[in-house]
Amino acid sequence: MYSKEVMDHFQNPRNMGVLNDFQAVGNVGNPVCGDMMKIYLKISDGIIEDIGFETLGCVAAIATSSMITELAKGKTLEEAEKIEFKDVEKALGSLPPVKLHCADLSVQALRKAIGEYRNTNS
Ligand code: FES
Which of 3, 40, 77, 97 is deepest in the core (most CB within 10 A)? Predict the structure, then answer.
């Protein structure tokens, strides 16, 4: 059912946990499945220097959270907010159609964190 990449990111999640030092957090949840994601950002000169996540949810929710942190790390805020759920899916090989919303939730969490950073630093 799940690709090799999904299982790898589920079993060995990258950037998991709260950062010691962060400037913004994006907290989202899907009311239908009940899954929740938080993404923490440490930003320096407009670049995502460090990123962490906490996710309570399904295999795909954990794998997509992990993957989006990998995709966003080192990018500018403008580049990171252009990441779409299809980019996350592609990077994970594939996702079952019923799990595409998990990738979308990870995108929403990242964009919410970026939005929070902008709100508090403008
Ligand atoms: Fe809803 Fe995975 S089933 S985020």
Answer: 40
pLDDT at residue 1 tops 90: no
Separation of 118 CA from ligand 1 center, angstroms? Answer: 27
| Domain 4-120, second-level architecture | Alpha-Beta Complex (3.90)
**pLDDT, mean of residues 80-108:** 98
Q: What is the pLDDT of residues 13-66, one digit of tens each?
A: 999 999 999 999 999 999 999 999 999 999 999 999 999 999 999 999 999 999
Domain-by-domain residue ranges, the chain? 4-120
Q: Which two tokens stand for residue 114?
A: 């970026």
DSSP-assigned beta bridge partners for residue 24:
41
Cα of 68 to ligand 1 centre, how many Å? 15
Interatomic CA distance for residues 8 and 69, integer angstroms: 14
Looking at ligand 1, which residue's alpha carbon is closest to its atom 4?
102
